[in-house]
Amino acid sequence: MADDRRRAKLAKEMEAVGARVQGSVFEAYLTHKELAEVVRRTQKILDGKEDSLRVYMLCAECRKKIRIYGRGKTSEPPGAVVL
User: Are 58 and 10 in contact (CB under 8 A)?
Assistant: First the structure.
């Protein structure tokens, strides 16, 4: 089981770059360079024998196919204006 302090540190790192959408699930729009930096920082926190960080990359076409049932919404791209 993951240590709660590590989990809290990891969540803080992720909240700095993205939106928490559920428990330990975050959405973020990152460049390849930003993603590499996030991975580098989180690897310093994670215990590879107990913890994991999963990154699922979605292309623009895949994002259009996201379906949410119940509460919630997808994160908007940076600079997007929703009226």
Answer: no
Ramachandran region of residue 16, left (φ > 0), alpha (ψ -120 to 50) or beta? alpha
Q: What is the pTM of this model?
A: 0.76
What amino acid is encoded at 58 in this protein? L
75 CB contacts (<8 Å, ≥6 apart)? Answer: 18, 19, 21, 27, 28, 29
Helix (H, G, I), strand (E, B) or coil at 53: coil
| Contact indicator for 57, 21 with CB cutoff of 8 Å | no
Instruction: Determine the number of helices (DSSP H) and then strands (DSSP E) in the chain.
Output: 3, 2
Parse the chain into domains and list their residue ranges. Answer: 4-64
Kindly report, residue by residue over 64-81, the tens digit of the pLDDT.
888 888 887 777 777 655
Q: Name the CATH topology of 4-64.
A: Alpha-Beta Plaits (3.30.70)
What DSSP state is assigned to residue 47?
A: -
